[in-house]
Amino acid sequence: MHELSIVSSVVESVTESLEAYPGARVLEVRLRVGALASVVVDSLEFCWGLATEGTALEGSKLVVKTVPVVMHCAKCDADVELESLQSFRCPRCGEPSSDLRQGRELEIDSIEIDDETGVEKTGVKV
Amino acid sequence: MTTRIVELRRGILKKNDELARGLRERYAAGGVLVLNLVSSPGTGKTSFLERTLRDLKARGARVAALVGDLETDNDARRLAASGAPVRQINTHGICHLDAEMIDKHLAGWEGVELGGLDYLFIENVGNLVCPSSYDLGEGIRVALLSVTEGEDKPLKYPTLFNSADAAVITKMDIAEPCGFDRELALRNINEIRPGIRIFETSAKTGAGMEEWLGYLEEQRAYRDH
């Protein structure tokens, strides 16, 4: 159960990014989490309220997009998506492969902010 | 209300990954092969590591170990019996080791310099889930599984087994009374991590140790060039 550590890292990282948007409030945080990232999405959501309390992220919504595992099949010479994590074989031809191209992501994709001031760090009004 | 989307595209564990990259460079500069041992609690990581340290020392290799546990320094004291320098990391409730903990414990480790080692073993906290997210800069990640745990462990914890570079089956001396289905275990590991090197060992009898030590020496030599 390291989801609280993960969520705390997200809060820290987003808070840093907010320095460019003084006074902005975060409405939504969007993550990309690979199917092989060892992270339980429900637990992330469970921790979210607690970890964001008293920060500029309080009250924001956490949206997690799960990224499927994609492996390269040498036999088919193609990148193929795995349907299950119970067998790392090409779903087309059955060839085993350890050459993964996607599925370990643990990223903050974007945030949606309520930027009333419309002022960026550069001082330019948008 | 003006809302806007700000693209961040940033790794959540960026700080850990950056620290791990720094560690990896330091290991390479020191010429030390670093192994991260991961398993459930009770697999026999400590016994296996104690035997490995002892056997490598007997072959003239310079070895050391960092050992992670939530509490107590029992494992460090057990491992110290091998004669190798050992340092305990207590995580106080955290379920995995991270790069920062390794960095901190390498600093100020009396009598131990990375440049003076051939092998550094990191025994992770007993947990088959969380350690897989945290890069410690290791050269080889080893997933361990004992004959008492059930042959389907790799299928239950694919994220960890898939991220491993080598797999070790421990307690082979009691495989028979446990009704351990060797073929099935090997097949399951291979389903999750096709082509991985698998070592069938017993820290008690020394079975499989020769092959394991040979692998370590081979990996070290390979990385040196």
- Going by helix content, strand content and strand pairing, the class of chain B is alpha/beta
How far apart the termini of chain A lie comes to 42 Å
Look up the CATH topology of the domain at 3-68 and 101-114 in chain A. hypothetical protein PF0899 fold
- Number of continuous helical runs of chain B: 8
**Biggest sheet of chain B: strands side by side, in what order?**
4-3-5-2-6-7-8
For the sheet with most strands of chain A, the description reads: 3 strands, mixed
As a whole number of angstroms, the C-alpha radius of gyration of chain B is 18 Å
Query: What is the terminal-to-terminal distance of chain B?
Result: 60 Å
* Oligomerization state: heterodimer
Number of strands of chain B: 8
Structural class of chain A: alpha+beta
User: What is the average of the pLDDT values of chain A?
Assistant: 90
How would the global form of chain A be characterised? elongated
Uncertain ranges of chain A: 121-126
Give the strand content of chain B: 15-25%
Q: Helical content of chain B, roughly? A: 25-40%
In short:
With 126 residues, chain A is an alpha+beta fold. Chain A has helices at 3-17, 41-52, and strands at 25-34, 61-67, 70-73, 78-81, 100-102, 106-114. Chain A has a domain at 3-68 and 101-114: hypothetical protein PF0899 fold (2-Layer Sandwich).
How would you portray this structure in words?
The complex is a heterodimer of chains A (126) and B (225). Chain A is of the alpha+beta class. Chain A has a domain at 3-68 and 101-114: hypothetical protein PF0899 fold (2-Layer Sandwich). Helices cover 21% and strands 29% of the residues of chain A. Chain A has helices spanning 3-17, 41-52, and strands spanning 25-34, 61-67, 70-73, 78-81, 100-102, 106-114. In chain A, helix 2 links the parallel strand 1 and strand 2. Chain B is α/β, with parallel strands linked by helices and 225 residues long. Chain B has a single domain, classed as Rossmann fold, CATH 3.40.50. Chain B contains eight helices and eight strands, in the order βαβαβαβαββααβαβα. In chain B, helix 2 packs parallel to helix 3. Classes of the chains: A alpha+beta (126), B alpha/beta (225). The interface between A and B is large, with 38 and 35 residues. Strand 6 (106-114) of chain A pairs antiparallel with strand 1 (3-11) of chain B.
